[in-house]
């Protein structure tokens, strides 16, 4: 099945009625359910871990100072979650146009050089350097922190793609548990959660915990840049979340990650052995040869084969099982992307593990 076989959800509804849930069990069996019944397909003693990052309005339209040409800057990364450290970002830059044009068809920006000024609504920024690609830059905002926050909040829009034609509002991309605004695109697996879902989890004896991870961009429109995704992403894991995971493990329960960002954060924080609370930067790529140390199952969106999100799922299941799941998604009309349906994949017990953790793409991290 090719990636184009699946249809993208085109309406910005986080919890549409009758959203589907495909369950791929550890032994390769596939079952279909409704997403609102997630608690029924988990086990008492499991702990669900979700990303509570709120989404920044990270798309900023403006002009390139030297040429006067229109540009769109999509903020894509920074080194920290600190709210008082908001000047240096990595970013993807496009030329004229907006989300209604497919990303891969967007116009290129004018040539970008170190020192170029960018006027982005009320915000002024300066290009610090390019990061190995003509459209990937490090920029630095000018002015005080309060003015930068205000400018992003008032002028920015959520990063958006052509499969959703209507402009997104900020509340469309904030999950029910959204807290610190640090994500560049929504940790959209968490759209499955609402207060009734959390009540159902508790009623089934399933724990719940959170972490904060700066979810990055999912597509750049350029094959060479997409091959470098996901970029380095900072995270924070509370001590209470580590305690909840350890408690579940001691009692024979499983750790169920809500999304790829949670998986990246937990696995990075455990790459030296025991899971650690605190701050870190997920700089590893998770794939078929990764030895998962913490996460036993993942709730994710329905992703197309070949995407970085789908590649991460290969750490949980064999190629044959994922291919059967992909066919089932197509045959049962599952919708992809952030407002689509969901899959729950349990980790297969006999995956051929070999750790692939390690630092990469350090050049993408903005320098202060």
Structure description:
The protein is α/β, with parallel strands linked by helices. It folds into 2 domains: 3-55 and 167-364, QueA-like, CATH 3.40.1780; 59-155, Beta Barrel (Thrombin, subunit H), CATH 2.40.10. The chain contains 8 helices and 19 strands. The chain has helices spanning 38-41, 145-155, 195-203, 223-226, 239-250, 260-269, 308-313, 319-331; strands at 7-8, 20-24, 30-34, 47-51, 54-55, 59-64, 70-77, 88-94, 117-120, 123-133, 136-141, 181-183, 207-213, 233-237, 255-258, 278-282, 297-301, 335-336, 342-346.
Topology diagram in text:
Layout: E1 7-8, E2 20-24, E3 30-34, H1 38-41, E4 47-51, E5 54-55, E6 59-64, E7 70-77, E8 88-94, E9 117-120, E10 123-133, E11 136-141, H2 145-155, E12 181-183, H3 195-203, E13 207-213, H4 223-226, E14 233-237, H5 239-250, E15 255-258, H6 260-269, E16 278-282, E17 297-301, H7 308-313, H8 319-331, E18 335-336, E19 342-346
Parallel strand pairs: 1-18, 2-19, 4-13, 4-15, 5-12, 15-17
Antiparallel strand pairs: 2-3, 6-7, 6-9, 7-8, 8-11, 9-10, 10-11, 13-14, 14-16, 17-19
Write a brief structural summary.
This protein is an alpha/beta fold. The protein is built from 8 helices and 19 strands. The protein folds into 2 domains: 3-55 and 167-364, 3-Layer(aba) Sandwich (QueA-like); 59-155, Thrombin, subunit H (Beta Barrel).
Distance between the termini: 45 Å
**Fold-level CATH name of the largest domain:** QueA-like
What is the CATH-assigned architecture of the largest domain? 3-Layer(aba) Sandwich
Reading off the top of the CATH hierarchy, the class of the largest domain is best stated as: Alpha Beta
């Amino acid at each position: 099945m090719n990636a184009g076989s699946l249809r993208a959800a085109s309406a910005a509804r986080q919890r549409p009625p009758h959203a589907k849930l495909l369950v791929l069990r550890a032994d390769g069996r596939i079952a279909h359910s409704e997403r609102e019944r997630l608690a029924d397909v988990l086990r008492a003693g499991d702990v669900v871990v979700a990303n509570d990052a709120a989404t920044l309005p990270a798309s900023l339209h403006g002009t390139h100072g030297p040429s006067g040409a229109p540009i769109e800057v999509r903020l894509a990364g920074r080194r920290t979650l600190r709210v008082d450290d908001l000047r240096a970002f990595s970013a993807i830059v496009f030329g004229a146009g907006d989300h209604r044009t497919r990303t891969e068809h967007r116009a290129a920006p004018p040539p970008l050089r170190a020192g170029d000024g960018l006027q982005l609504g009320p915000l002024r920024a300066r290009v610090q350097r390019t990061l190995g690609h003509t459209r990937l830059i490090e920029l630095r905002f000018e002015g005080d922190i309060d003015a930068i926050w205000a400018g992003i909040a008032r002028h920015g829009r959520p990063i958006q793609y052509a499969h959703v034609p209507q402009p997104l509002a900020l509340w469309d991309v904030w999950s029910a548990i959204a807290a610190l605004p640090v994500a560049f695109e929504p940790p959209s697996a968490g759209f499955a959660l609402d207060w009734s879902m959390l009540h159902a989890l508790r009623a089934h004896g399933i724990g719940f915990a959170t972490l904060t991870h700066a979810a990055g961009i999912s597509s750049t429109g350029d094959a060479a840049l997409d091959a470098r995704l996901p970029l380095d992403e900072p995270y924070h894991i509370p001590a209470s979340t580590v305690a909840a995971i350890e408690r579940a493990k001691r009692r024979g329960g499983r750790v169920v990650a809500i999304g790829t960002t949670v998986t990246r954060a937990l696995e990075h924080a455990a790459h030296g052995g025991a899971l650690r609370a605190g701050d870190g930067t997920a700089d590893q790529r998770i794939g078929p040869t990764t030895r998962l140390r913490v996460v036993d199952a993942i709730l994710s969106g329905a992703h197309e084969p070949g995407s970085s999100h789908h590649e991460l799922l290969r750490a949980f299941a064999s190629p044959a099982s994922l291919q059967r799941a992909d066919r089932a998604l197509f045959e049962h009309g599952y919708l992809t992307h952030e407002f689509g349906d969901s899959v729950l994949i349990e980790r297969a017990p006999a995956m051929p593990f070999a750790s692939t953790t390690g630092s990469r793409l350090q050049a993408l991290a903005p320098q202060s």
